[in-house]
Design goal:
about 240 residues; alpha/beta; two-stranded antiparallel ribbon; 7 helices; about 30% strand
Length: about 240
């Protein structure tokens, strides 16, 4: 099954501490699976390339899938692509979930292997695309990142499936909010949307449908350039998901 329109769930969350395993799928990943319309045992492909395709990270996602009754596969690019037909493999999924890490490195590797083109096809076909942090920024035009070092910098060469900028970890990392606002105000980044930790942005096509949260009291935000070259931030109430 696939979603009834191109769907992206871009988040600053998705996992929670597990009871018997290290992590379990949180409400945001569960909602992504629901959005896919999957029946029976859903299929989710995890891409951990932003964190170097670490096998321990793949394992804990697969373990979380076992707990949730979800068939989890991993698409690794290091040291070589782990499947022969990446296009076919991704089209066969209900959800693609992209992990955090270096969004700059992720984008380089994706383009090297043609995944920038593949993901456009997969998105249009109705496979739900989602992810956290780097896995949120990547679908947008750009955002702020620690890919280059502890002092955050803008990245402006995202896949741009969504014609907005994106801010992640908006409430938990001190540099995120002021830098995102400065980049929008000076035109380095276009207007866009930001998420507190635990919040996701649901897009149908390129339209933001709603903000969702797995943590009570957290919000999303729209940030646009103001009439005086400043940034104008508007809070977006996030709908709580069942935990």
């Amino acid at each position: 099954m696939t979603a009834d329109s191109p769907t992206i769930l871009a988040t600053s969350g998705g996992l929670r501490r597990g009871r018997r395993v290290e992590v379990e799928f949180g409400p945001l990943i569960t909602h992504a699976l629901d959005l896919s319309g999957a029946t029976g045992r859903p299929k989710l492909c995890f891409l951990g390339t932003a964190y170097g395709d670490q096998r321990w990270h793949n394992f804990r996602m697969s373990e979380a899938g076992l707990v949730a009754g979800v068939d989890v596969t991993n698409l690794n690019l290091f040291p070589m692509p782990s499947v022969d037909d990446m296009h076919g493999h991704l089209l066969d999924q209900d959800v693609v979930w992209v992990g955090g890490g270096s969004v700059a490195g992720l984008l380089v590797m994706w383009r090297l292997h043609g995944l920038d083109v593949i993901f456009h096809d997969v998105w249009q076909a109705g496979v739900v695309l989602g992810g956290v942090s780097a896995g949120s920024l990547c679908w947008h035009i750009g955002g702020t990142t620690d890919s280059f070092g502890p002092d955050l910098r803008p990245v402006t060469d995202g896949l741009a499936l969504l014609p907005y900028s994106n801010g992640v970890h908006y409430d938990s990392e001190a540099q995120r909010r002021p830098l995102f606002q400065r980049c929008v105000a000076d035109g380095t980044l276009p207007a866009g949307y930001a998420t507190d930790d635990g919040v996701g942005l649901l897009y149908r096509g390129t339209d933001l449908v709603e903000a969702l949260t797995e943590v009570e009291g957290k919000s999303a935000y729209h940030v646009a350039r103001g009439p005086h070259g400043d940034a104008v931030e508007t809070q977006i109430q996030a709908r709580p998901l069942p935990y």
